[in-house]
Write a structure and sequence with these properties.
Elements: H1 4-27, H2 36-42
């Protein structure tokens, strides 16, 4: 039972850290362009081919 005295605050702290990281990613614009990566995969890109 004494171990719960340590585990509960550690779990709350880790949860707050995860929530803080998520809120930081929202504010920094990580989720602004959800479709961009999907369309970039399908786009033709000729820069990878060697030039003669």
């Amino acid at each position: 039972m004494n171990m719960l005295i340590y585990l509960i605050p550690i779990a709350l702290f880790m949860g707050a850290m995860g929530l803080g990281a998520f809120l930081w990613s929202l504010r920094s614009g990580q989720y602004d362009d959800l479709q961009g990566a999907a369309w970039r995969i399908l786009a033709e890109d000729d820069t990878d081919q060697p030039k003669p």
